[in-house]
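Q: What residues go here?
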């Protein structure tokens, strides 16, 4: 039970015991500077109204006036059970009463601080995230350029091709441009995504089977891109003259220092 719900449950019990209405409580609260309405009070049951310290103080004074009984904040939380607090922690009603009475108390289930909450770690992660679009933009440019400068058959197909909807969606999944996704499919398989999917699925394949095959191609392309960025070269069977693409021209592999030779080459670049 959240603290708002617990307070509303107490209000409900007082209404039943003392014959009070929400309108009476709201009217009395306004005498103490609040702007309560019956709807505001009932909103506590739905967690729509805040159980702030100010509101709890107003409630105690209002109920004191209406009932003629002396009340303290801890009276708002009678009985047993746990109260959920913001931030994932909880507190038992007994411990909450101790806290409100100015005594030592214990919380339940305080989540440990995660390493990712460290501001330094967050800054590093953000820097890495900010660098991804730049890296993948270079990868995209290189793939399109490689296809356009490849053998005549590859170049002609690439020039005449407009990315399909499926290629656009697939490109979004692997963070490259749609033309780049078309290019890497062409370089890797000799044809574009839709043709490769159709060939794998077979004639008269169901949409479900075509979908599975499409996901399989996307996974292969994703691994291919990962290999390009991290390992520095990749073999494309469709390139007859030079079957090994060296993305060091992208300042990618050497930049990350995969091997000593690559790192030295990168440092010597103008």
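A:
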């Amino acid at each position: 039970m959240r603290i708002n719900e617990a307070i509303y449950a107490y209000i409900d019990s007082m209404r039943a015991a003392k014959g009070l209405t929400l309108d009476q409580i709201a009217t009395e609260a306004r005498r103490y500077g609040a702007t309560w309405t019956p709807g505001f009070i009932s909103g506590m049951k739905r967690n729509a109204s805040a159980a702030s310290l100010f509101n709890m103080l107003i409630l105690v004074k209002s109920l004191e006036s209406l009932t003629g009984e002396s009340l303290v904040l801890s009276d708002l939380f009678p009985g047993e059970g746990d109260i959920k607090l913001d931030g994932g922690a909880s507190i038992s009603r007994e411990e909450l009463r101790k806290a409100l009475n100015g005594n030592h108390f214990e919380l339940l289930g305080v989540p440990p601080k995660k390493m990712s909450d460290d501001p330094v770690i967050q800054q590093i992660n953000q820097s890495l995230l900010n660098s991804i679009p730049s890296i993948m933009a270079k990868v995209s440019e290189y793939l399109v350029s490689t296809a356009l400068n490849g053998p005549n058959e590859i170049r002609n197909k690439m020039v005449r091709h407009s990315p399909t909807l499926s290629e656009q969606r697939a490109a979004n999944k692997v963070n490259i441009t749609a033309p780049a996704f078309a290019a890497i499919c062409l370089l890797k398989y000799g044809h574009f995504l839709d043709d490769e999917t159709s060939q794998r699925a077979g004639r008269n394949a169901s949409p479900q089977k075509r979908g599975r095959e499409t996901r399989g191609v996307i996974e292969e392309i994703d691994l291919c891109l990962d290999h390009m960025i991290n390992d520095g070269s990749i073999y494309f069977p469709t390139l007859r003259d030079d079957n090994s693409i060296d993305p060091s021209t992208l300042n990618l592999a050497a930049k990350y220092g995969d091997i000593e030779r690559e790192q030295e080459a990168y440092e010597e670049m103008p």
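A: Context that may help when evaluating the design: Residues 242-270 have pLDDT under 50 and may be disordered. The two ends are 64 Å apart (CA to CA).
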